[in-house]
Hints:
Largest sheet of chain B: 2 strands, antiparallel
Largest interface: A-B, 50 and 42 residues
Number of strands of chain B: 2
Order of helices and strands of chain A: HHHHEEEEH
Number of strands of chain A: 4
Oligomer: heterodimer
Helix content of chain A: over 70%
Distance between the termini of chain B: 68 Å
Distance between the termini of chain A: 11 Å
Radius of gyration of chain A: 17 Å
Amino acid sequence: MKSVILQTATRLLFPLLLIFSVFLFFRGHNEPGGGFIGGLVGAAAFVLFAVAFGTEITRKLLRMDPRVMVGWGLFFALLSGIMSMMAGDSFFTGQWVFPILFGSELHVGTPLIFDIGVYLVVVGFTLAVIFALEEEDN
Amino acid sequence: MTILFSVLLIFAVAFVGPMAAKYLKNYSGWALSLVPLTVFLWFTGFIPEISGGSVINESYVWVSYLGINMSFYLDGLSLMFALIVTGVGTFIMIYGGGYLGSDPNLGRFYFSVLLFMGSMLGVVLADNIIALFIFWELTSISSYLLIGYKHNKEDSRKSALQALLVTGSGGLAMLAGFILLAIMTGTMEISEMFTQSGIVSEHPWYLGMLILVLIGAFTKSAQFPFHFWLPGAMAAPTPVSAYLHSATMVKAGVYLLARLSPVLSGTIEWTYIVTLFGAVTMLIGAWLALAHTDLKKILAYSTVMALGTLTMLLGMGHEYAVKAVAVFILGHSLYKGALFMVAGTVDHEAGTRDVRFISGLRKTMPFTATFGCIAALSMAGLAPLLGFIGKELVYEAALSASVFPLFLITAAVVSNIAVVASSGIVAIRPFFGEYKEHGKQVHEAPVSMWIGPAFLSVLSIVFGVLPFLIDGSIISKAAASIAGTPELVVSLSLWHGINAALILSVVTFASGVAVYMVWNKFRDSKGFQGYDRWMGEGPKNGYENILAGVLNFASVQTRFFQNGYLRYYLLTVLSFFVLIVGFTLFTKTDVSLMADFSDISFYEWTIALVIVVAAFAAVMAGSGLVAIAALGVAGYSISLLYVLFSAPDLAITQVLVETLTVILVALVLIHIPKFTATTSTSSKVRDGIIAGAAGTLVTLIVLAVLTVDFDPFMTDYFAENSYVVAYGRNIVNVILVDFRALDTFGEIVVIGVAGVGVYGLIKLGKSLFRKEEGKTV
């Protein structure tokens, strides 16, 4: 199924969705959003691309096998917990630093790394399943 | 260096093992042996301190609110075991490098064997029972990996699984026993339990706890009727047999009994159960050795005999017995480790280790033959080797036993007669007599393969002739730890004058020689083969029947519940839900419906109505696509409700999940049969009733929840601390990634596992299906 309308729209929507996904991801700290929601939007972007252009090109675009992405996600999440242990706290106790960038104070901590892990797991899982199902049809 | 560091060091090197095998090739065994050697030397540094009467405690907080610590306790007993584990381990690394040499999986061997070494070191040093349990199970797992080293042979895999299931299930029983023990004593540190033996033995749970702990110890140390896994484990490469299945892991059960002896022993239950199981194992194992011609099988059964002897002695628990335990453990580790390595060397060079086919190797393999013979003399219990002192002490202990001394001394002598004969078989058959041609040119093994037996067997002589080297420094305190009396002193000597034990030794040796002379005929006699079938194969067959029964039950119930029809899965799940939750709801709570519909605005009613209509539309739909669209409407409407009740995070998630679900289901729908093909009127009625019941029940639960007073403690806590502690204003997200990160972690692991499952079903399921089709056509 090749649709010119869908393909043209996807070319415009795909980068927007990705930016939106990252925006939601970072926004999650103070406003609705976060790794899970951001991950779902990110996955949706790639799914849209796959529907419009096929999974083969989308896999190349993604660069990483979605199954491997799930593994990295779990690794990052675990890493954030281990970092807390290294600092002498118990597993998954948030560790924070406050760098000042362009005059404003940033809050950077291990929950961010954890959330990156969640993001990757969600994207990886969704794409692994949907790609596999789509390829099944052909 | 700390004790924790010494354990972690070995674990860390385990991960370097494969690289060492790849880059250092023939030197890898020598290089890696430096690690256990370093740890061994470090532990020898403790000998003056420990023999001076002090003990060392080291503790790291782990899970403080459960009382679980990573704590270590170094006294005479654990020091002796630590020295055996690292000392024998040093030679095993050298020997393994030579024995497996060019094997492409050598790296995996190094990894597993070092993993085992670290775990075993942990077992003998741990003070906290949970830490001990974890190390204990790690030894089972690494043993599984090592027995199954030749994983392309079915026999190896089967033996590996057998050893894992027997020792692993025993370990679980032991964990239950440990928890009971912790409840009884109020502590998880073994060193704090020593003063509470009175409380423990008076406790009404004592017998139950004892049996559970004993199951753990007996399975690990291959006591009858669990002994069958040990000869099976001989499928492992010989370095593994020499290390795990003679010198170290199988002694973990004995170690546990010795360690807990001050807490648990002294009661009638302990004395009877432990002594008798030990004596029976000793007797049965010793004679089973003579039913075999495979060197490793003979050695394995004589190890079963040795473990039985140690258990019997621990059951007696008096002063002679604990002395005998300490000496026998050390003596056995030295000669049995050496003999296994010799058996492996013979196998490696001659191509077989069946004593019927090899003889006269002493000329071609002089070193191996010499050290093998020395070790065998120690096993036979001849002066002036350490084995002699050990056996004399066993006899003296049995003579002064408090319960059935006559039976125990008879059993000990009869068992040792068989051991003398076995020693003769392993020393004389391969090395003496006429050299037999059997196609393979036999050479002496490389130095890496006889240096281990050399050291261990020479130590058997040195410690035998000069027992003062070990009695004050190691044996005294080890025996004192087992007895629970720090002031116990052991002084060993070769010559005790002519006493009952010495006379029994002479009788044993003479009878053993006689048995050896008639062994060929005796072995093939019908009666003896029957004995092997009953005592050796019998329990193994019992295990296999149980295993087959479990698998059979699993497949029957799987076929019943997981019949492959998704709709029946849903049916089962919902029916159970309605029955169980409904039962609880109506019997345990008084359901009072306090629904107040007054302040519901019209748009909320409208959304609710849309949801209901959409749900019915989904049920009535004639095609899958319509149904999924209708469900989508219901889902989006629910997310609108979330918005109305100010839960934007939930609403966004719901919308996104709905969207992706529609895509997912659309992709799946193609493969699902038409609705009409699967629904008859009767099944529609049945489904309707169950769906209606489930819906009603959920509604009742939601209404019942409203009548429960809501405790705002957690909500307030999160609201107050979200920004202060976790620097985030979005409470939902802060809970997810910070406050309750462990839960989220569990959830994403589930997602990952589910992903693997789904992927497997899609990719693999189809190919399996195709194969089946191919078969039927």
